[in-house]
Amino acid sequence: MASPVYDSDPRALLKSLLATIEDEVIPLTSKGVSSGNKLFGAAILSKAGLVPLTVSTNNETVSPLLHGEINCIQRFFSQTSFPDSSDANKLPSSQRPNPRDCVFLATHEPCSLCLSGITWSGFDNFFYLFTYEDSRDLFSIPYDIEILQEVFRVPAVPASSDLEKREAEGEDLDARPLYNRRNKFFTARSFEDLAREIAEKHEEGESEKWKDEIRRVKALYNGLSDTYQKSKTSGVDSASFWK
Ligand SMILES: [Zn+2]
Prior knowledge:
The protein is of the alpha/beta class. The chain has one domain: Cytidine Deaminase, domain 2, CATH 3.40.140.10. The chain contains nine helices and seven strands, in the order αββαβββαβαααβααα. The chain has helices spanning 10-34, 68-76, 112-121, 132-137, 143-152, 163-169, 191-201, 204-219, 221-233, and strands at residues 41-46, 52-57, 81-82, 91-92, 102-108, 125-130, 187-190. A five-stranded mixed β-sheet has the order 2-1-5-6-7, sandwiched between helices. Strand 5 (102-108), helix 3 (112-121) and strand 6 (125-130) form a beta-alpha-beta unit. Helix 1 packs parallel to helix 9 and helix 7 (191-201) packs antiparallel against helix 8. The termini are far apart. The structure holds zinc ion.
């Protein structure tokens, strides 16, 4: 069965993603940050109907690998019904949706660990509210960028014919994107990308309305960030090395 065209109306998609963050992810993350976890959350929605099936938040006080996205994937593959709630229409775990029929939502642009986790699990898309630069500049968490730059970014080996030219010019590593946002495995889009799609398909004013809505939901993270930063300075016990 072909997947439904879940993104034909970027307004409906953005509305569901923002509501999932506000109503489902943030309540979990509020509890998580008060016990010393980072504020990164994730959810998996059905492409059909855009219903949240699985919702998770970071739990790295237990293990440094339990990022919001990885926690969400683990839960998706172990939960006993879909959605993971008291919904009367839920399906048993034997009818777990195919990842290809799901939308993956990350509150923050996924790190290298989570990019791999999403890819290996077979999700063909993800959407994120905050970019890597937001994580670094607004939340004082620079490691997404630093790990991609230090571990994965290898300078290109120039062909021998243009070696001298390339050496003379120098390679501008900083101009290269940190990963392929469109590739064989997935397409990654930020909420700002969806707002741009709304502007292309509808009127500019419509897009501005959604940009305001994105700003409003982003602002809900201010208090969560303060709580997390306080836990770092007060030395809450965490398994995470990079805080
Ligand atoms: Zn991650």
